[in-house]
Amino acid sequence: MAKTKTKGPNRSKAIRGYLSKNPAANAQEVVDGLKAEGMKVTPGLVYSVKAAGQKKKAAKKAAKKSAASTNGSAGATKADLIREVAGGMEKPVRPKDVVAVLKARGVEVLHTHVSQVLASMGMKKRKRRRKTAVGGVAPVASNSLNINDLVLAKKLVGQVGSIEKVREALAALARLN
Prior knowledge:
The chain is built from eight helices and no strands. It has helices spanning 11-21, 27-36, 43-69, 78-87, 95-104, 111-120, 147-160, 163-176. Helix 2 (27-36) crosses helix 3 (43-69). The N and C termini lie far apart (101 Å).
């Protein structure tokens, strides 16, 4: 059996009316106030009406904000301003320069915010590593030979007589260790 709508006062409308007169009222106060006026409402209905009103307010506020941001730089975000300034600058774009330009315009931005926006634009300065002939990254040379080592090796070859004798001496030294 289907429910039929009862004719009578609109309870939601009555709740909205009571809340407009008493915006700080909680649900139980609304129930008691409307009961005194001869209307029966439940706290659950009061909560539902309040939530619906808050959703409408939030939607209006969001619509107003989006309309303001499309009007130009008055409602533009800081990130939009950073992109605009960085797009008009010569490469390389440094965050320090962008901050200075925006400060001259009266807009305060943080250096880190500018860096993040520039990185998302693809303007982040990338450090390049030195590559070896194989294609890998060059290791930090702590045991590599330098020019002084080569001069000492040449002296040793001169004292011993030949490279072969030096090799034999190194092999014998390696066996001792």
